[in-house]
Amino acid sequence: MLAATLRYSVAGYNTHPLLLLLALLGFTVFFYVIYYRFAHPLSKYPGPYLACLTNWWKVYHTFRLDLHEAVLLLHEKYGSVVRIGPNDLHFWGPEALAPIYKAGRSMPKTEFYDSFTTFNPNLFGTTDDDQHALRRRQLSHGFSMISAREMEPIIDYHMGILRKKLDQCAKTGQVFDLKEYLGACILDGLGEMAFARSFDSQSTESPAVSNAIRDHILLACSIGQLPLQSLTKAAIAWSPIPWIRRLIQSRQQLKQQCAECVDYRISHPSDRKDLLHSLIKAKDPDTGAELTRLDINTEAFAMLVAGSHSTTGTLGMLFYNLFRNPAALREVTAEIDSHLLMLNPDQPSYSFDNLESMEHVVACVRENFRMDPVFTMTLWRRVTNPDGVQIGDNLIPQGTNVCIMNYVLHHNPDIWGKDQNTYNPSRWLDPEAKNNSPYLIPFSIGHRMCIGRNVATMEIYKMVTTLLRNYRFAPVFPGKKQSLRSSGIGELEGELLVRVSKRGNDSG
């Protein structure tokens, strides 16, 4: 009887249920592989074998912090279009920019952006074009260059703290991590602008908030690459694996901290000019609609995460590239010396006025944006036109996800020449450089371009000119070359160890 209950007849043969299940599973896998490898509309495009079957190829390289490099290697091997997911195509050439990122509603954002939601979808994460347009109108004034200049005293205050730390290091001759010092200064400044409070990272030297931001970005970019996000989020919420628990806890800690800061600021009104003040006062110029408290929490959280980490990563890579290229460092320092007097003890940094008029400074910053853009996310768009969309020589079918990472575009030798992998600021001093300017997209492109670029630009130029004019750095490099490591928003791999000395009035 027991044997009879464990077996049943199929087409006249006695078959064990487990064997039948394995057979069905085997046939399903077989036909899945055959379809996605040979019969899928994207099967003609080259790429890793695993990537045509599953999105886990992207997740794997996201966790390795080298997706940007892995995709670049694919293009160098296969050409202008590569398949990096079952339904995902990545492009290399500039002809892909306009069709993907300037096509408006016909190329909407994909579910990738949903993974960044903490409170509600923010300006960056929302896939609703109407909501994005409304929020952009509400926030545009608060992120204008005029508003950014009003927040310059906040940046100056925290740069003053940084300079006191550098002065102390100059006295003692100690070796320190410049990347860590820069990151703490930027984080405290953005914290005060976004939340009306500093995280005191410079005084406590605690990396807790910075680490939590890294965890949030890694979690979001990993989940975003996978289908069935709701199921994935539910599954990892119950995961017993310690490092996954850490990523989830980091996000929750940041979310709670943000809500507490916003609640305090709203309950203690102030006319102090900062990003949070701009959010509280923000209105749609067309309808007068204001942000709710939940909206304010949502956008403040996004400003802190993206604003601090991307600016910190950019500055770390910029100083690293200058230190490894002494000729460029000498040229940019000489130009800064010729334009700026040394700061008095009561001056924390230089005013942003006219800092962008120095051509060597601009060239160094732009070449850093090209060589190591820290915002390396796969900003996916979906083809919705039933007839598909023409991108270069390729007719891309409806339903395909498409993107072009700025890191990959910025290393295309057809645009930048054979020295595309070399930090060479002089390329931007060539009169013909303006022809390549449209292909330099560190802040993305189109109507979804980063709204915080004015604040970031001001911080970068103020930091570079202030530090190079008033200090001399002696880098302590490790044996191997350090690279950009990125889960979506990147930074210099490892530490940026230096010694520092104060410069004299002779500019030497």
UniProtKB/TrEMBL annotation:
The chain crosses the membrane at residues 16-35. GO terms for molecular function: heme binding; iron ion binding; monooxygenase activity; oxidoreductase activity, acting on paired donors, with incorporation or reduction of molecular oxygen. Its cofactor is heme. Heme binds at C450. The keyword Ion transport does not apply. Keywords: Heme, Iron, Membrane, Metal-binding, Monooxygenase, Oxidoreductase, Transmembrane, Transmembrane helix. Pfam families: p450. Belongs to the cytochrome P450 family. This is Cytochrome P450.
